Amino acid sequence: MSPTSSMPISPSPADHGAPAALAAARQLCAGQSLPPGCLLVVATPIGNLADISLRALAMLERCDLVAAEDTRMAQRLLQAHGLAKPLLRADRHREQTAAAEMLALLAAGQRVAYVSDAGTPGINDPGAVLVRAARAAGHAVIALPGASSVTTALSASGLDLDAGYTFAGYVPATQQQRAAFYREALASPRAWVCFEAPHRIVQSLEELAQLAAALPKPPDLILAKELTKQFEAIVPGSPAELLGWLAADARRVQGEFVLVLQAARDAEPMDAQAQRWLLRLARELPASRAAAVVAEMLGADRKTLYRWLQAQAGQGLDEN
User: Fold this and answer.
1) pTM to 2 decimals?
2) In Å, what is the CA distance from 80 to each residue of 90, 163, 221?
């Protein structure tokens, strides 16, 4: 039978288990305090509606009203999971007005949930105005964690994030601002996560490629496209390689883009005294403990010392 042939699909065990899972979530959430007059900030899927958490569904059931960046998107999400709630539009254009309306509802003891179009509210999305207003008026604010394109792209990047990361929002729209933006990213010891619009992605990568060409080593770059959606792609490569990937298919420039950028770093030179102490102490102590002792003695970075010691063990080296 061909892949396009029509064939009845039997419910999977997961389908039968879904109602039971939601019932369990309701029971788990029943003990959580949800005071009258509280605001719930609810993370929603970034593309796949199945990414809504069971806790989010259970808590949305207990809310009196849902404020939304886009009421049509919120309605679609609620209907997909069998929920029906009154809706209040709270996009960027009327966030202040919506905040006043929300405060009246909270003062009357109603529980209000806020959802942005996709992902975690307040992370490059509306929501902060409502949170500040609710908190300033003395109302409880409860955050329900969930999907975020920022953390989704980072977790699939494979980059070393020990030094942390910077979320920089959208890449600036003008060429001069973009150049300054990318120069700062390439000078940072941290990974940078940013969004880019489909109509600017090619020009943006071209300008990044010019800056990267002047560096001793190309930066690590991950392009994440349409995360969690049907045509999701997570592509590593240099700026030039990613430009080639986009050019290979005109459809690839469509959609939403997340870029993860990390400048290449040379390995830190290991002090000779630190080497001797590490190798000597490693005879008596576990590698992690030896690294911790030397780091404290010399004021060095423990993780760097530990990685160096592990590398020596892998090469079969000793103190001699």
Assistant:
1) 0.75
2) 21, 40, 36
